[in-house]
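Please go through the sequence line and token line underneath and see whether the fold suits the sequence. See right below:
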Amino acid sequence: MDLFRVVLVLLLLLAVSQIGQRLLPFIPLPIIQIALGSAIVYLPWHVHISLEPDLFFMLFIAPLLFNDGKRTPRDELWKLRTPILLMAVGLVFLTVLVGGLFIHNLIPSIPLAAAFALAAILSPTDAVAVSAIASRVLLPANIHRLLEGESLMNDASGLVAFKFAVAAAVTGTFSFWHASWSFVVISLGGLLVGGVISLGVIWARMAMRRFGIEDVSVHVLIRIVTPFILFYTAEHLGLSGILAAVAGGILHAIEQDRSGFTTIEQKFVSEITWNVILFIMNGLVFVLLGLQLPDIAADIFNNAAYSNFKAVGYVLLIYMLLIALRFIWLIVYGRLSGFLGRHGTEWRVLVLTALSGIRGAVTLAGAFTIPLFIGNGSPFPERDLMLFLSGGVILFSMVLASIALPLLADRAEGTAGDSHNRKAEVKAQLESIKAANQAVRLATDETNHFAAAIVISDNDQRLSDLRRTNYEILPRKAREEEMFLRQLGIAEEKKCMMLLARKGEIKPQEAVVLQNIFRRIEMAVSNRFHIVYLLLYSLVYKVFSAFMPDRRKAHAGLKLKDRKTFIRLRIATATYALEELKANETCSNSSVSRVCGHYRHIISVLNHQLEAPDAEEVVEEKVHVLKLLSIQAEREALQQQYRQGVIGRQQLSKLQFQVSMHEAEALDNNWESLLQA
């Protein structure tokens, strides 16, 4: 029961972190999740989980890196193979050597071998942390792919170096040639094992299809367990489970690109399932990291043997060294190859890439594998301090990157970045609409194929308009004006409803239903703070209505009564709002024109519904259901591109505004469905 309670609390924290990130978009989600994980340690429930490093790597790191390998563009990784290998191998070993000597001289109580071990576990960047922090800004394409490739590959080199450094600290012996040969075997062996097993899994799934086993659930289940099998097998053989998972992800991406290997339905269900799994695992990684930090800090801050000021100073100095080493390494390679930029932007790009070397849960999980005792039975020297330094460097790297990256990325892009951003926005919008069409196709059957054709045709028209007009996203001021005018229009409709109610032209029960309709439409065109208010209001209203049988019966009766009466009322309120908006002088003419055009369209649709035969109601309802499904798929596609770093936070906000306006239009066009709300 205790385990169930802990898991339940952790999952609830993930939901809370998403809400917090929406309310505080300037704070990266990982920082919020770490803070929540640290906070619940002090609650009276005594939530605590001991980090088991081996289990942590297999349960969390393996599937996350498998997914990163599957989604990272292979052609771009291949083009960047030289800088990736130099960063993932050369920089790691430079960090181990220089960092180990620096730590030993800075803190003499840490033996040289143990200092090398600490430098080794601090050397790899964390793929999950890099993706989570870097996705908030639109990094230059070459830097983003370099960071992805580096974080995929340097875990193996860092962990192997850590393993031999710890062995030297425990036994007192070290062989450079043995360590070098082992590194080659462990790395290449992990890649080979991952590739061979993945090919076997792909072949087995193809054989199952030939035998008629097309059950989507079975195929998706095999995909889910594959990274765990890869990691466990490679580690059991003494090879790199991390590289095995990455290799498996790349091969599965090749399989997925070939339509003959995987059905559309399997791709769709697999994508949805993976999105849920990745959301949970990504969040739990940082929540679990937060759970460990209070105990680590307490071991040092409550220990009289350590100076709190000095301990924090050690963290800062070590982090500055890591950044300096990255910067120097990048300067050397950048000067020789010209890869990282030229002229005035070069220094900004170098600093941007250096600060993007974010440490994460991999570093802390590796640090927890430091043994408690050395070979002669004595306690491992300064183990608590090493854990504290690891946790401190992780926090420093995340906080500093979350502050500096948005500033540096904007400046590094410059004028050319504006054009690049627009292209990224257009591409993201195109991909999201295609995803929406795919969702509609998968939901199509013999009962709604005509409605599906209407929705897909509407989306195809939007795609055509985007390609033809080189789609321009509305600037922030225009978006704010349009949102204000849409909210003003709803307020005017409510005002008209109250005037009609005073004249006795609307019954009280009808006014309640119209109020519900307006509230639902208003939610689609409101900012996050107004939405919170509306959701609370809706919740209170539903709870209140649940205990009022008479009110519930009256509301249910209105859902079935004269449809054309409600259409006429809706035409009256929309016409009133249109006339009021025409006279608005506080916003630009273009914004007023767009919103007035929306109301004219709504009035035209309502007049058509007033004259249309009842047989069209069924088709309209099915169109509305599929349109809302399409909009939701569009939102999910945009979120996915944001998580992958294709678009940044500001671009996501712009595109989500467009989707919200499209949703509001869909709700207005089929307002009758809101009677069910």
User: Anything to note?
Assistant: The domain at 2-412 is CATH 1.20.1530.20 (Na+/H+ antiporter like fold). The CA atoms of residues 216 and 266 lie 6 Å apart.
